[in-house]
Amino acid sequence: MKKAVSLLAALVLMSVSPAESISLPSTAASTEEYTTVTRLMMTFHEYSDHLVLAGCDTSRTGSVTIPASLNGKPVTEIGDNAFKKCEGITGVNIPTSVEVIGSYAFYECTALESAVLPEGLKEIGLRAFRGCSSLKSVVFPSTLTSIYRSFEYSGVETVHINAALTDLRNSFDNCKLKKITVDEESKSYAVDNNALFNKDKTTLYYYLYGQTATTYTVPDTVKEIDDDAFSGSTLKKIVLPEGVTEIGSYAFAYNNALVSVNIPSTVTSMGFGVFSQCSSLKTAELPAGLKDLYSAVFWKCDSLTELTIPAGCKTVGQGAIKDCANLKTVTFLSPTCEIYDEADTICNTWGATECTFSGTIRGYSVSTAHDYAEKYGYAFEALDSYVLGDVNSDGFIDGRDASMVLAVYADSSSSSYTPDEKDYALCDVNSDKFIDGRDATVILSYYADLSSGKNIGFTEYLENFK
Q1: Nearest one of 171, 226, 217 to 197, comparing CA atoms
Q2: What pLDDT, in 10s, does the model give residues 154-210?
Q3: What is the pLDDT of residues 114-147, one digit of tens each?
């Protein structure tokens, strides 16, 4: 599954995950000389032994037939951007001589209804058919082994996966797939209960669109939920098994019906925008092992009222809890969690000129959560209550606390340690912004008075101490 790791960044990256590399189809070597040939409102680059279809007049309409050869040489490739935004073409006949369809080749050909992919085709490039909203069905030839994001945001509803296809990375994201069939000899994919899996059912790729069920239980074999797997579904409840470790970017996004998803304790990684615009989602219990809360994970979750960030979470990304209209409480169990430094990382409303949060940030007195709330004027509630002088937090102020003050003083004097805000909150009893022997002396003096029978609180003692 594509990992995910920042709301503007998330929106830019919503279609490309951060940890994956992009492998584009090979194209004719740029150093090889060619001549330009124009036929039937199409432009070809003629090389020594083959031709590449390089472009088509965007005013072209109707069905297009690509010639198998020109000047005695085969047309072997449809180049990058060749038919990009040719919004009038309705069909394309591709000859068996074509081995490669380049990136963005038919990008946003919105009227394209038919594209027969020929036997002999080996590669389809990045976003080759993206945005082809009238294209409903795809059958892959037996010679095609891998594709990458080739049909995302298209109108494709039915797909047949051949036995040779081993990698279709995110190629149908944001499509409304209603039917997927898989060649029985496929060693890479399987369909079961309206979902597409890898062969051993450890990764769930897609849940089919348009199902009438309101609840779906993911099989116990599944370890990964892929990017966009349930995106746009109408399920109200999704049950994930213990053993799932990774949830991909936008896995449950854009589902206004979704009320409940359990996140197993085994999950350690969640991508961008996992629950973006799930407006009915009421609760989300994040697992203790989650290391990062990436950008836009809970963007526009209007029914979410509270959220707890676990102690092991190291970062909260840009816009992670943004535009959640009814959010009242966000609790940070880690004092050092790095929170993206913008007011709209956590907010109820967001606009061009203002960002508001009427709820409360909860965290430790000395923490990044406290600093974030203070910087942006958000209400803050402390989870702890540091008691000045009770350095070891055992409920007593005595010689052991004085010893700990002296230990901090010794370490800081030798430059091996720099006292932090917590140290000052506990140790600087005389409020002179230093931690030294004078603070230890005050504590020992107070302890001596208590030991002699005096009944006085430490705060009162400090006020009278001279």
Answers
A1: 226
A2: 999 999 999 999 988 788 888 888 899 999 899 999 999 999 999 999 999 999 887
A3: 888 999 999 999 999 999 999 998 889 999 988 9
The reply to whether 249 and 110 lie within a common domain is no
Summarised one tens digit per residue, pLDDT across range 380-420 is 998 887 788 999 888 899 999 999 999 999 999 987 788 88
β-strands 237-239, 260-261: how paired?
parallel
- Structure-token pair, residue 421: 């805000």
Token pair for residue 140? 């892959």
Please give the pLDDT value at position 210: 79
Residue 314, number of CB atoms within 10 A of its CB: 12
Judge whether 178 lies within some domain.
no
Residues 9 and 31 in one domain: no
How many angstroms separate the Cα of 399 from the Cα of each of 21, 207, 389, 438, 445?
A: 59, 64, 10, 14, 10
pTM of the model: 0.74
Number of folded domains that form the chain: 3
Cα-based distances in Å from 216 to 60, 235, 425 = 45, 7, 50
Residues 6+ apart with CB under 8 A from 107: 81, 83, 84, 85, 127, 128, 129, 130, 131
The burial class, CB within 10 Å (0-12 / 13-18 / 19+), for 356 is: middle
Output the CA torsion sign for 379, 384, 388, 391.
negative
- Could you give the CA distance from residue 22 to residue 439 in angstroms, rounded to a whole number? 60
Distance of CA 219 to the CA centre of its chain: 23
What DSSP assignment string belongs to 25-79? PP---TTS--EEEEETTEEEEE-SS-EEEEEE-TT--EEEE--SEETTEEEEEE-
Q: Could you tell me the residue range of the domain that residue 259 belongs to?
A: 1-20+199-385
CA pair distance 171, 167, nearest whole angstrom: 9
Q: Which of 304, 355, 364 is nearest to 333 (CA)?
A: 364
Q: Which two tokens stand for residue 147?
A: 């594709």
